[in-house]
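Lab notebook, bench 4. We co-purified these components, and the gel suggests they stay together. Before we commit to crystallization screens, I want a quick structural picture of the whole thing.
Request: model the full complex, all chains together.
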Amino acid sequence: MTTATEAVKDGAVQHGLQAHSHGAGVPIQTRNERMRSTNVADFPPVTPREEQWRYLPAARLKGLDADSLSEFVGDLEVKHSDGVTTSWVSSDHPAFGAAGTPEERPSAAAWGSAEQAYLITLPAEQSSEVQIALTSESTEPSALHLIIEAKPFSKASVILDHKGDAILGENVEIIVGDEAELTVISIQDWNEEAVHASTQLAKLGRNAKLKHLVVSLGGETVRVSTSAEFTAPGAEVELLGMYFADSGQHLENRLFVDHAVANCKSRVTYKGALQGEQAHTVWVGDVLIRMAAEGTDTYELNRNLLLTEGARADSVPNLEIETGQIAGAGHASASGRFDDEQLFYLQARGIPEAEARRLVVRGFLNEIIQQIGNEEIEARLTDAIEAELARSDS
Amino acid sequence: MSVLEIKNLHVTVETEQGTKEILKGVDLVIRSGESHAIMGPNGSGKSTLAYTIAGHPKYTVTEGEILLDGADVLEMSVDERARAGLFLAMQYPVEIPGVSVSNFLRTAKTAVAGEAPALRTWIKDVRSAMDSLKMDASFTERNVNEGFSGGEKKRHEILQLDLLKPQFAVLDETDSGLDVDALKIVSEGVNRAKEANGFGLLLITHYTRILRYIKPDFVHVFVAGKIAEQGGPELAERLEAEGYDRYVKA
Ligand SMILES: Nc1ncnc2c1ncn2[C@@H]1O[C@H](COP(=O)(O)OP(=O)(O)OP(=O)(O)O)[C@@H](O)[C@H]1O
Ligand SMILES: [Mg+2]
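Here is the predicted assembly.
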């Protein structure tokens, strides 16, 4: 592993790139037709009338929906294995915008405001590992653009770890080349007052595999919009997520899987725990199976565990199917309190109630944490959950 | 020598049609080392008795008492009862996603014993208990009851019985859903644990076949929420031949 620390300089505010819009700013229900643009001016203001902003008041964005943001000021500490290359590239680089186009105002604002993108290239035909620790102390609304490009036949894991204080608009492009196998883990472990709107756009080539995992724990408002688009048959995505919301926190996850071509597979599994007054989580999972996407196999699941009164979990799965020739499509969504039978079983073995509750929550979230495949980070997240649970006992 | 006394126990549950009385005055005394079998038709209240002893919140005791060496069990929480030495092997063990068997067993043992077991002996104990129940070592890495077959769930219950070493064990239809071989393995497991720890046993069953392996000292016929008749092992044989018709019609 080599370590490089990139200090991002306080950059001048950049305005929108030259871009065109594909539609007017009216709310659209079909994902198929949702407006995409890199120009923030194409997007209407953030209001609850729009489906995308139904659950998140604009005030919580603390300026991330403005026309322009400052450039990200903070540290990107990057560790990577040999063969991985990193560089700052400008918008004329072919990788810039290769994974998609913003569909939301804060994403477009960040797109136009980040003059350069940090490009991480994962070499073909070898295994690589990358860990990016992103820390910030700044509370100016700022923008960051990252591009992860997994070359054909590469095998890699990338961990993106967000910590500290920030009001950050972020775009993460994920390009998964033909036959590549990529794991991307995005951890939001911010301080209490941080605000983070992250758009993670993935595009997959032929027989490519992407495992994408979102862990949101800390931050006042954290919204991660993840989308995956298939461009050639035989590809697979696994979109996993885990979140733990405390009093006053708003943690939102929006997913979109675009089955545009035949014979691809997607699995979405998000699990969340909530505790305390005004703890709010939102999960919206859109899956679109287009006319051409015969042989699609998709399943999405969201489960929420409400540990106390006063917490609220919104869970909205949407499955749009334009062809009848699919291998399988389904979704499940459930939010509920503790399963009393589980508590009874554990207590009947002598385990005191508070500890039994902790075991159940830990177990509930563990299913996702176990997927990380990095012991150090698994241990850190397990500890973070323990700390959250300890808070609920007092 | 310990004694578990159940006196004039009346229990209700809340149903959509209102409160329903299920146990209608149960009297039963079990001493350390004794084996009692409770047999009765479907819906007669056998599981209700088992759950009430364990303290399941669904069941309300309206009259009567349960005493463990004179201590009022009904005053204890579910986990206090377990720590006081009561054990219930459940008819339908519950799945606990994400919690491994090894973590669960260690946490339970620590709770019941009041201190964490010494790691090396504990691992050895778990392994040998699993061996005798013919459970694969990989079992400990699985999540509690998740994806277990009916037989695996029952073995897992008996594994806990063996490791937690209670004063009194209530086994609720541990024999149901077991094939001949599994029934034999599980029964031997119960007998071995009983020999080692000398607990009092309350064996709830539908069928007499398990009584060929676990010999009861007393047999109680349970009908419509109370004990309709009691006797020795010969009563079980009579039930096998005649069924419950005699009691149900009466
Ligand atoms: N929560 C409940 N709500 C409504 N009725 C209940 C509830 N729990 C038990 N009962 C009823 O109480 C009666 C006794 O049930 P119980 O499960 O104790 O019987 P059982 O003897 O264990 O039967 P089985 O042999 O089928 O296991 C049944 O009529 C059952 O339907
Ligand atoms: Mg029963």
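Residues B 46-47, 91, 172-173 surround magnesium ion (ligand 2) (CB under 6 Å). Worth comparing against the SEC data before the next meeting. Chain A has two domains: 29-337, 339-394.
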